Protein 1
Amino acid sequence: MQSFDAAPFIVISETTRYQPATDTPESHGVAAIVGGSDLGAPCATPERVEEALRSVVDPELSLSVVDLGLIYGIVIDGPTVRITMTLTAPGCPLHAVMADWVRRAALRVPGVERVEVAVTFDPPWSPARIAAS
């Protein structure tokens, strides 16, 4: 059987049989290819990206960057995602690391090929941004 590693279709074999008026050996085991071009590429959405960002946890506070209210915006532009985020304090020692964790988490979303993360402190973060559980 051929390998279709990244192909956007599913091969289904011997699930449907065509029965012509005369039964011939060629009429058995007809392979059907379904799906394909109408499926299109996976589509990233702000909701899917936000869900992926829930896996990024602040190690000091043990809450995700989403639940902490550190994510200020998610913009989808084709395969590119632009995320605006903040940190709990301007002097946060995890400044570069947290932005990279956010970038990597967003890249796991199907359809995302590029992620740009902008860190801002305007407006400054406060504990009031923490999501109510």
Protein 2
Amino acid sequence: MTAIATRARVDVAPRDVAPLLIAAVAFLILFANPLRLLAIDWWTDPDAGHGLLLAPLALWLAWRAGLVTERRPQRVLGAVLLGGSVLLRYLAGLAAEMFTMRLSIVGALLGIVLFVYGWRQVMKWWLPIVLFTLSIPLPAIITNTIALPLQFKASQMGASLLELRHVPVRLTGNVIMLPGGHRLFVTEACSGLRSLTALLSLGVLIGGLWLKYPVTRVILLALAIPVAVLINGVRVFLTGFLVFFVSPKLGEGFMHVTEGWLMFIVAFAILGMLAWVAGRLEAIYAGRRAAHA
């Protein structure tokens, strides 16, 4: 508790309290409605539910990182970014374009941080900033464009794995025809987009907390994509396998949802293993650099 109080006294001078409070109140007044609508989407939209975890986590990480001890305000850049974000919020409100309106929240926050503390504070808070940005749901036009190829890919992988297990199937688009007249529909909800979004967010979080070098963080993030696609294909295979060999009821309802959660845990474990390997490689690289220094 003493360390926290000391840091607060060093980082926030008394003369800065009033301007910061005014900026915070103005920010809340201007962006209260976009924040409210964003919170509603987090609560009601399954595709945006990861925001319920990412947003509080971003706030906690920002608090844990704290403030820089030496401020180098970027007044001009911060004012320009803040003014542009306010204008973007106004125009997006007129056009009822939610994604752009929500991005203006991030822009305004960056503008305030730059204006008061400078780039060093932005770099110190890069992880919470990225996590909060990832909590903003993508526009429907983008999610629909991504979901359809993922549906077809999951259907193809599931059908191929079923054929390897000598299950006679016929694939038509995103519908897998099983013997006995059973049909396995790979819907948009089963496309793997949700697990892909969640894994990418976890990749950013794990990379930011465990890894040191930007290159290994980017590699881990890139590996999260094939992991999500592969696991979703395996999920489709398992669903078809259980429907064919056990019971058609296992392809719907509670069992289907439970199966999805279990497969996501497997994907998360794989991502954690990849992060551990990347961390070991970083340690080896750092040791060699130190040896040759």
Protein 3
Amino acid sequence: MNDFWMCFVPLFVAVDAVGVLPIFHSLTRGLEVTHHRRILRQSVATAFIVGLTFLLAGPFILEIVGVQVHDFMVAGGILLLLISLSDLLTGQKRQRMVDPMTIGAVPIGVPLITGPAVLTTSVLLSNEYGIFAAGAALLLNILIAGAVFSLANPISRILGDAGSKTLSKVASLFLASIAVMLIRKGVMGIIRQAMG
């Protein structure tokens, strides 16, 4: 059970449902309730399918190309650090023009819920704590994101733009800390391997 929580917390930070909420709200504002629900189901299903596929296939792909876990930890840590610093410094998550029929899959499911930070974090956690713990934590976090998005209107009214941005900044700071820890562990692992 401890392994599950060790996976849950970094993935909760990486998903950053509250930070993504203003974008979700702006993309779905004014839609009919039935269309809103369809988008919500589409986004959660897409996010989980992509995340689980990468979680299962990612380590196998890394093995084929000869990338070791410590290499991936350093590269993944640097990527997470850049993502978190970008969010911290600009306060903006990337947003694109979207097709209203596929908005749930792209960009909400991927990359807003399951983006590079979530994919990298899930593979690193599966190497450390096992695929079952990482997969269960990934599923729960995506379901939490879906629940948060289903309450987009009342949550947005309560938090306001300032509250959402503040929580997103705090989440990005935690993600930066996790990134530094991954880089440190990866570098130490590479040094240990080199020293035999």
